[in-house]
Design brief:
The complex is a heterotrimer of chains A (304), B (215) and C (648). Chain A is α+β, with helices and mostly antiparallel strands. Chain A folds into 2 domains: 14-85 and 107-132; 154-274, Cupredoxins -  blue copper proteins (Immunoglobulin-like). Chain A contains 5 helices and 10 strands, in the order H-H-H-H-E-E-E-E-E-E-E-E-E-E-H. In chain A, helix 2 (15-41) packs antiparallel against helix 3 (52-85). Chain A starts with 7 loop residues before the first helix and ends in a 30-residue tail after the last helix. Helices cover 79% and strands 0% of the residues of chain B. Chain B contains 6 helices and no strands. Chain B has helices at residues 13-53, 68-93, 97-123, 133-170, 175-178, 182-214. In chain B, helix 2 runs antiparallel to helix 6 (182-214) and helix 4 runs antiparallel to helix 6 (182-214). With 648 residues, chain C is mainly alpha-helical. Chain C has one domain (118-582): Cytochrome C Oxidase, Chain A (Up-down Bundle). Chain C has helices at residues 6-9, 32-54, 58-63, 67-85, 89-94, 121-149, 160-178, 183-194, 203-222, 239-242, 246-274, 287-318, 332-366, 373-386, 405-414, 416-430, 439-462, 464-470, 474-504, 510-536, 551-582. Chain C is globular. Classes of the chains: A alpha+beta (304), B mainly alpha (215), C mainly alpha (648). Chains in contact: A-B, A-C, B-C. At the A-C interface, helix 3, helix 4, strand 7 and strand 9 of A face helix 7, helix 13, helix 14, helix 15 and helix 16 of C.
């Protein structure tokens, strides 16, 4: 290879001028961008404020989006500036070398420390907003460790099966309904389970998402704070009709809820009698609907 | 193309690639160990995971296991095979190729029998594969175990066949064990790689014996 | 040397018996045709055997679908395929005690060598390149089929079953192919050249690794004709236990691809460690080498767990074990753990080689040494190590180990530190550089642009409270398409434009490359950027019905995806056109690279790469050091010093 020709102008350039140009434009753009995200976009971000948990998630999304703006802009501005400034112009020797910089301990050190601090900060932040709002609406398994202060909660069991959701209400005689009505300003405990494959109970506006595992009780909490309609979708692939596995629910006032629930209990009384006893999980057996589990001694069909 | 002739160190290509081949033997054997380790690690994870979950109390409700007698025999064969093979390697270091060959043929037979017994044991279990958690993991383990043993025995067989083929040619130079020829060095490094692998398998056999028959 | 064994071992003799890689011209010499015949015969035999064994089983006679027969069919098809290819000749000969055979049979000029099992790493690289392109375009067409369905919020084109089969097929095929998309073509082809070696450590493993892929391609695709699998590429149990025999195709296809990755990474690791030319120290190793070695080790330690998982699923489906079935003492969580223990490292297996290519190509067009060489190597290794400790972030809402979530949130966010290193390296390299915006360079900058979205949204997904909203939604889907397609695929195409002159001897048009780049990056962003919004607004993945209010966004995305498809079609047409018709010969070292692969005698490189083993004198990135020695003691001729991509 022939000798490397250097473009001396690169090495002679002052570093400070470039850095201040990038930093100033970046800072201005970032402040504008961050305020736009925080004040303009922020209030409209999903999933809304129907429950405490949803509001918490909305705040988190707003917070992270605001923080993402300066990162995004820094990389963009840096790349944009470099490409514009240090492009090879027509007529210049295309193979002349740039500045012979192999590294810069100051820049690298700052970068390492900064990214580490940001990342650790994000982890602490995320943990705080996971623990304080009682699991942030996510599934917390059978024995949740982060629970709401009150023990007096409305219990709703979400039973997923291919391809629909039903709901059981242990506090209303163990009735099972196909629709979901929730009272306002109430702490709700969702006990999510499945009869067959893995589903996922996603009440979008409530900010609740929990996998429905067969033979497993996955608990999630939410505290309602607004009335309105919400959509429930299955969020874990569960077979052919996964795409059609959704329904709607409502958050209504407490008195409306009482009326609805007592009515439903009365209406369903005959059916409720036939249901298996309320349990946190159901294992379908060969001999009946739910309840009990596999046992060769009593199951005539099992040939194992 | 022109060459820079000055300053060029003399590169003995044959020697260079010979040493690279030795290094590859070393790494190949270690990678084989790493692969088997993670392969068996996944099965061990399944074992301990299902055991700790004990869904419906059906990990192993009646304490059934596969035949302990057979399991012990398989373990004994594998350990014997590893020990005898190691003994053969000691002899090889002293230049006694014939001893190495005899020891490793024995080792090979012991390994093949162990794999065969493992399959036989699998056909003799007194529970159904889906009856409980232990049953499933055992049924999963047995074919993998005997399969890996058989692959190891294939490796050993190629070494034994190589030793028979090349030993006569190397006799004047001290035989496979002592010869400084590349051929012998390559053989020794492959053999060394195998013996590490085989010792690892002996160790894994002990671990899985404890898991499936003792615990 | 006392004993002449060159004849016997074949070292240094071109006339040595070519083993396991016959290039004989006989009618029945092994090639892809005999492979297909062998595979077909093997499948029929295995299927017959499975029926003979299992047709009486209650499970089989009750359901009419015999998983034992299907799995055995695939197993024997694999064996038959490799017998037909002649890949088993050498292992069987070894049982007769021949010494290791390092010889490479002389290859002819024709195209037939590309359809045979050969041990030349350059042939394997080219085979991989075209194999992976076939994979990519098949799975890409499936993606367009998905987007077509999503033009309307209700089911209209495919039935729900076909739709979900297409989704699973697209995901599985892409995931299978992405792991090899850089390692296969460029790792296999370039690494031996870059490290100054005449050969690779385990050429037969390398060849095997390629020949697994066509088989797994056809097996996976065959699922569509057998009812498919409706469980997606993740195939969560117990849904995957419900499926018909299409699920067996998933298991076997994915398993074969796993074996392929194991073979390829074993070879690449041993090659980089042992076959570096004298003077090619670790601190002179090209960054692509560092990325390949991190990739290789990660694969070696994670793929066997995938094979375990698939094996467990196969046994549950065929031998009626119950490891994934709660009611019999198993657990569906077992599959999720085994799958994601592989699945998460895999995601970084996709990113690492992409970063390697980027860090390799950018210095060439910036005329500067790579900034923070050690940092970039440390970034790759850090990614590889950390990737083993994050798998449960896919399971934040599963209810499994909820108390571990803060830990996995931490490890997941820690991964952004080594990822950040890659940005630091890129930005530092561009600082006071002399940037040439050639086709390959544009693709590399595109990787940085796209991956930034992927990386930043990665922070959203890793944050557990936000994860509650975005888990399993189109947001996640857009996130990983940005990292994988925006990262790896852009790097892949950039690498194609960069290395095609070397691989084929033909120069690709810069103008067409730029048209391809700009159409692709605009269409790509127009396709996937709205999907973040779609996901945040509540559309789950893998659905054929969605909220009516999201229809406009979805239509926008679908139409953009067609444009993206057209852009890729443009690549196919122009690429083939330039290789087959215009055939503009490449100048020597067209990009002015210092790296060793360009120092070979001719493009494409001669069969044994170098006439003699080069002695490496300096690092590959000394573009701005006037006192630097040439990289090796062979001098690159650069008579016609008119690199492409510069207006002069």
């Amino acid at each position: 290879m022939s000798k490397v020709v250097l473009d001396e102008s690169r090495s002679d350039e002052s570093t400070k001028g470039h850095i201040s140009k990038i930093l100033i434009s970046w800072a201005v753009a970032s402040i504008i961008g961050m305020s736009l995200v925080w004040f303009v976009l922020g209030p409209h971000l999903p999933p809304g404020t129907m429950t405490d948990q949803a509001a918490g998630q909305q705040f988190d999304i707003k917070f992270v989006s605001t923080l993402a703006v300066p990162v995004l802009f820094f990389v963009w501005f840096f790349f944009g500036y470099s490409i514009m400034k240090w492009r090879v112009r027509p007529g210049e020797d295309p193979l002349a070398g740039g500045a012979n910089i192999r590294g810069n301990s100051k820049a690298q050190g700052t970068w390492y420390i900064l990214t580490t601090v940001i990342v650790l900060g994000m982890a602490v932040y995320g943990t705080y907003f996971l623990v304080v709002p009682a699991g942030a609406g996510g599934g917390e398994g059978a024995s949740p460790i982060w629970t709401p202060a009150t023990k007096n909660m409305l219990q709703v069991q979400v039973i997923a099966q291919q391809w629909r959701f039903t709901y059981r209400w242990p506090q209303f005689g163990g009735m099972e309904t196909t629709s979901l009505e929730l009272p306002l300003n109430t702490e709700i405990q969702f006990n999510v389970t499945s009869l067959d494959v893995i589903h996922d109970f996603w009440a979008y506006q409530l900010g609740v998402k929990a996998d429905a595992n067969p033979d497993y009780n996955n608990i999630a909490f939410a505290k309602t704070q607004q009335t309105g309609r919400f959509v429930v979708r299955c969020d874990e692939l569960c077979g052919i009709w996964h795409g059609a596995m959704y329904n709607y629910g409502n958050v209504v006032s407490q008195s409306q809820f009482q009326t609805w629930a007592t009515n439903m209990e009365k209406q369903n009384a005959a059916v409720t009698k036939l249901l298996p006893k309320y349990a946190t999980t159901y294992t379908p057996s060969y001999s009946g609907a739910g309840g009990g589990y596999y046992n060769t001694a009593t199951d005539p069909n099992a040939s194992l | 193309m022109s060459e820079i002739t000055e300053e060029r160190p003399v590169v003995d290509e044959e020697q260079l690639y010979h040493e690279a081949a030795l290094g590859s033997n070393w790494w190949g054997a270690r990678i084989a160990i790493a692969l088997s380790l993670t392969l068996f690690g996944g099965i061990a994870f399944a074992y301990f995971y299902l055991r700790s979950l004990n869904s419906h109390g059906l990990w192993d409700p009646h304490g059934q296991t596969a035949s302990t007698l057979m399991g012990s025999m398989i373990l004994a064969l594998i350990l014997l095979s590893a020990i005898v093979s190691g003994y053969g390697n000691l002899k090889l270091k002293k230049g006694l190729t014939l001893d190495w060959q005899v020891a490793n043929i024995f080792s090979l037979l012991a390994g093949v029998f162990a794999a065969g017994f493992q399959i036989w044991e699998l056909t003799r279990i007194n529970f159904y594969p889906g009856a409980f958690g232990y049953a499933g993991v055992y049924v999963a383990f047995a074919p993998v175990y005997s399969g890996v043993i058989l692959l190891g025995m294939y490796w050993l067989e190629t070494l034994i066949a190589r030793s028979f083929r090349s030993n006569a040619a190397l006799a004047s130079d001290g035989g496979l064990g002592l010869s400084r020829s590349m051929k012998a060095e390559n053989f020794r490094s492959a053999n060394e790689g195998f013996s590490y692998f085989w010792n690892f398998m002996a160790f894994a056999s002990i671990v899985f014996f404890v898991m499936f028959y003792v615990l | 040397m006392a004993i002449d064994f060159s004849k016997e071992t074949g070292i240094g003799s071109s006339g040595g018996a070519p083993s396991g890689s016959s290039t004989g011209s006989g009618k029945f010499s092994p090639s892809v045709i005999t492979g297909i015949i062998g595979g077909g015969v093997g499948y029929l035999f295995g299927h017959w055997l499975g029926n003979a064994i299992a047709s009486g089983y209650q499970q089989v006679s009750g359901s009419g679908s015999n998983d034992v027969a299907t799995l055995l069919g695939y197993l024997f098809a694999t064996v038959g395929w490799f017998i037909g290819l002649g890949a088993l000749n050498y292992p069987l000969k070894k049982m007769l005690g021949i010494d290791p055979d390092f010889s490479e049979p002389e290859l002819g000029k024709g195209m037939s060598k590309y359809f045979k099992y050969t041990v030349d790493h350059k042939i394997v690289g080219v085979q991989y390149l075209f194999g992976m392109l076939v994979y990519f375009f098949t799975a890409g067409l499936l993606a367009l089929a998905i987007r077509t369905e999503l033009l309307s919020p209700t089911t209209h084109l495919w039935g729900p079953d076909t739709y979900i089969e297409i989704v699973g097929e697209h995901g599985t095929m892409m995931m299978m192919m992405m792991t090899s998309v850089i390692l296969g073509p460029f790792g296999n082809y370039m690494i031996p050249l870059m490290i100054g070696s005449k050969r690779v450590a385990f050429p037969r493993l390398e060849a095997m690794s390629f020949w697994f892929t066509p088989l797994s391609y056809f097996i996976l695709l065959s699922a569509l004709w057998q009812g498919g699998f409706q469980s997606g590429w993740t195939s969560y149990a117990p849904l995957s236990l419900q499926q018909g025999v299409g699920q067996d195709a998933y298991i076997f296809g994915f398993g074969l691809q796993g074996l392929s990755m194991v073979c390829a990474s074993t070879n690449i690791v041993a090659t980089i460690i042992n076959y570096r030319a004298p003077g090619m120290t670790w601190s002179r190793l090209p960054i692509l080498g560092w990325s390949m070695i991190s990739l290789g080790f990660t694969m070696i330690l994670s793929i066997p767990v995938l094979i375990d998982g698939l094996y467990v699923l196969a046994l549950d489906r065929s031998a009626q074990t119950a490891m994934l079935y709660d009611a019999h003492g198993g657990s569906s969580f077992l599959w999720e753990n085994l799958f994601w223990f592989f699945g998460h490292p895999e995601v970084y297996l996709l990113a690492i080689p992409g970063f390697g290519v980027v860090a390799e190509i950018i210095p060439v067009f910036a005329r500067k040494p790579v900034f923070g060489y050690k940092t970039s190597a440390a970034g790759m290794i850090g990614l590889a190590i950390l990737s083993f400790f994050v798998w449960q972030h896919h399971l934040f809402q599963s209810g499994m180990n909820p108390d571990m979530r803060p830990l996995f949130m931490l490890t997941t966010e820690l991964i952004s530190i080594p990822t950040g290193f890659i940005y630091l390296v890129g930005m530092g390299t561009l600082w006071k550089a002399r940037i040439r915006l050639t086709g390959p360079m544009l693709f590399m900058l595109g990787v940085y642009f796209n991956f930034l979205f992927g990386g930043l949204t990665g922070v959203y997904v890793s944050d557990v409270p936000i994860n509650v909203t975005v888990h399993g939604s189109f947001f996640v889907m857009a996130h990983f398409h940005y990292t994988i397609m925006g990262g790896v695929i852009f790097a892949f195409f950039g690498a194609i434009y960069y290395w095609t002159p070397l691989v084929t001897g033909y120069q690709l048009s810069e103008k067409l490359a730029k048209i391809h780049f700009w159409s692709m990056i605009i269409a790509f962003n127009s396709t996937f950027l709205p999907l973040f919004a779609v996901g945040l607004l509540g559309q789950p993945r893998r659905v054929f019905e969605y909220a009516h209010r999201l229809q406009h966004l979805n239509q926008w995305v679908s139409i953009s995806s067609y444009v993206l498809g057209l852009s890729l079609m443009f690549f196919v047409v122009t690429f083939i056109w330039q290789l087959a018709v215009t055939r503009k010969p490449a100048v020597r070292n067209p990009w002015g690279s210092r790296s060793l692969e360009w120092a070979v005698d001719s493009y494409p490189p001669p069969q044994h790469n170098f006439r003699q083993v080069p002695v490496v004198l300096a690092g590959p990135y000394e573009y701005a050091d006037p006192d630097a020695l040439p990289i090796a003691d062979i001098v690159m001729e650069n008579k016609d010093r008119a690199p492409v991509g510069v207006d002069r």
